UniProtKB/TrEMBL annotation:
Pfam families: Mrr_cat, SRA_ScoMcrA. GO terms for molecular function: DNA binding; restriction endodeoxyribonuclease activity. InterPro entries: Restrct_endonuc-II-like (IPR011335), Restrct_endonuc_IV_Mrr (IPR007560), SRA_ScoMcrA (IPR058712), tRNA_endonuc-like_dom_sf (IPR011856), Type_IV_Methyl-Rstrct_Enzyme (IPR052906). Residues 59-144 form the ScoMcrA-like SRA domain. This is Uncharacterized protein. GO terms for biological process: DNA restriction-modification system. Residues 212-326 form the Restriction endonuclease type IV Mrr domain.
Length: 334
């Protein structure tokens, strides 16, 4: 029988077994969220994710997803509505104090790659359809991954984590932590999701699931057909690369108006679109062009403020709810 080697360090990119994580970090051996309690206080959290995705397709649109340096993670609880309680509540503690969260990515049987420190950007309620076809509310957590860290000694993560935590807190703006569906003035602890007809919500979720499983370039082609269907002319999908971030070009013509050129970005994202993406699109627009971002996810408050900025060219933001309404009103067939 092979002897278990207990590591005394963690290195980004290195693989560890479940038992190595359990015994070296002294956490539970089951579950995706594994808190370490020391002297009745939360010492750190081990968070394990499994990204169920190939390069161009997604089998499960509700699976956790890493996009760039952002991890979108679904809270604990496979059936029924999720609540901010139990291990889910532990994650929220990082908002008010320096709690290290150690991220591991499962990439094979009993193979967990250490990906670095995780910093909670935002958390919010959303809807999902379970495998029985029932609508439920879940909690989504969006983390920024800090992978450029030195080798960690397994003793006191707080000393190493604290400088990164302070840097993160200084750089993040309050409006970066809020998404569009939370802009109701409610405090987070008392937040209630907007009341929408359940059948409509199921239809929106069905649309989102379908869009998230489509190849990104094929999604651009589909959205281009929708844009043409709604009355635009000369609709063209750009090349897959070298397009300065523009996915679709289109022309809007009306007898009472000058011809208007529009440039679209299509983002098949699970994490929220932020201020940076809006500003980048504005910088990519050609002369006298209007910009639109169409996303399968949400928009942060900072993205919305940037899109509507006084003295700036407005950028229109279309999320999946808006997309559903456009498809329904124009009777577009997917």
């Amino acid at each position: 029988m092979k002897q278990l080697i207990i590591p005394d360090t963690l290195k980004v990119g290195e693989f560890y077994s479940n038992d190595q994580i359990k015994y070296s970090l002294e956490v539970a051996n089951l579950g995706g969220i594994r808190p370490k309690i020391k002297n009745n206080e939360l010492d750190f959290i081990v968070l394990i994710t499994s990204v169920e995705e190939t390069k161009n397709s997604v089998r499960n649109p509700y699976a956790d997803k890493i996009e760039g340096d952002i991890l979108t993670y679904t809270g604990s609880g496979l059936q029924g509505d999720q609540y901010i309680s139990g291990v889910n509540k532990r994650i929220i503690e990082q908002k008010v104090k320096s709690v290290p969260i150690l991220g591991f990515l499962k990439e094979g049987v009993n193979q967990y790659k250490f990906i670095g420190f995780l910093f909670l950007l935002r958390n919010y309620q959303d809807y999902q359809i379970d495998n029985q076809g029932n609508l439920r509310t879940v909690w989504l957590f969006e983390f920024q991954i800090f992978s450029k860290i030195p080798v960690l000694k397994i003793e006191n993560f707080n000393d190493m984590f604290f400088p990164f935590y302070n840097q993160f807190k200084k750089e993040i703006l309050p409006e970066d932590t809020i998404i569009d569906s939370l802009l109701s003035g409610n405090k987070e602890d008392n937040f209630i999701l907007p009341k929408i007809n359940e059948e409509t919500l199921k239809s929106i979720e069905t649309l989102k699931k379908k869009l998230l499983t489509i190849n990104p370039y094929e999604l651009e082609i589909l959205i281009a057909k929708l844009i043409e269907h709604t009355g635009f002319n000369n609709v063209e999908v750009t090349k897959k690369s070298g397009d300065d971030g523009i996915d679709i070009n289109a022309l809007l013509q009306h007898r009472f108006s000058f011809d208007l050129n529009y440039q679209f970005q299509v983002k098949r994202w699970k994490h929220s679109v932020g201020r940076k993406e809006v500003a980048n699109l504005r910088g990519s627009l050609g002369f006298n062009n209007f910009g639109v971002i169409i996303s399968t996810s949400h928009f942060t408050s900072s993205a919305i403020n940037e899109a509507r900025g006084i003295g700036k060219s407005p950028i229109n933001l279309i999320g999946v709810n808006n997309l559903y309404e456009i498809i329904k009103e124009t009777k577009f067939t997917l």
